[in-house]
Amino acid sequence: RNLTDISLLESFIHLRYVDLSENKLQDLSPLSSLTHLLWLKVDGNLLTSACMQELPYLQIISFAHNHIKDMEGITHPRLANLSLKGNKIQTAVGLSHSQLLSLQILELRENKIESTAGLSLPKLKNLYLAQNAIRSLEGLEGLDQLTTLHLRDNQLETLDGFFCSMKCLQYLNLRNNGISSLQEVAKLQVLPMLQALVLLGNPCSDEPNYRLEVLVLLPRLQRLDKEFFEQDEQEEANQIRQKRQEEEK
């Protein structure tokens, strides 16, 4: 509707669901009086900041496809799902760890983030970081409830930065990065619950016996590149692993 002004909404204090997508908004301050708001969608506007007055019951926000450059000023205590997909964010630093105690889903695809430092959110379960410019994994040790991590289409060459404290991580997507050696994949042995891994599009996926070698390194893995391991693959990997362990003694 090409809206540029939403000041009329200030009087609708009991609104709970608001969708203002595909307008030309630059200012969300009139929403500060909507203290009963549960759900807000403002995709495809002209916002340069996600900063808003704290709203006590707000649980879901989508700021996708705006011009937001940082994550400062997001402090809603019950926020569980936050999307900042398709913005211009360069750093993950800025989210208020002490106030975002309910955040479980964070969508940061299609930004310009270079490092994961700053994402230590205690309740986070799903983290989407595909299509950024991430070269290093930092500050992930506090994500002890994370189950899903998407890092597709980044610039990772090493897999340092994973920790045994990430005891719930089950799904890891590393498609189309620069991981050239299966020795890097061995660093994922610290993840006790990892069940599904995607490595297609990395140089290491062209190595001989790639599927088998990954299973030798990660015996608890159930799926590689979306395909489940067959029982005969698991048995062969077990034999190779045992043989190598005996040779090392």
From TrEMBL:
<keyword id="KW-0677">Repeat</keyword>
<dbReference type="InterPro" id="IPR032675">
    <property type="entry name" value="LRR_dom_sf"/>
</dbReference>
<dbReference type="InterPro" id="IPR050836">
    <property type="entry name" value="SDS22/Internalin_LRR"/>
</dbReference>
<protein>
    <submittedName>
        <fullName>LRC23 protein</fullName>
    </submittedName>
</protein>
<dbReference type="Pfam" id="PF00560">
    <property type="entry name" value="LRR_1"/>
</dbReference>
<dbReference type="InterPro" id="IPR003591">
    <property type="entry name" value="Leu-rich_rpt_typical-subtyp"/>
</dbReference>
<dbReference type="Pfam" id="PF14580">
    <property type="entry name" value="LRR_9"/>
</dbReference>
<dbReference type="InterPro" id="IPR001611">
    <property type="entry name" value="Leu-rich_rpt"/>
</dbReference>
<keyword id="KW-0433">Leucine-rich repeat</keyword>
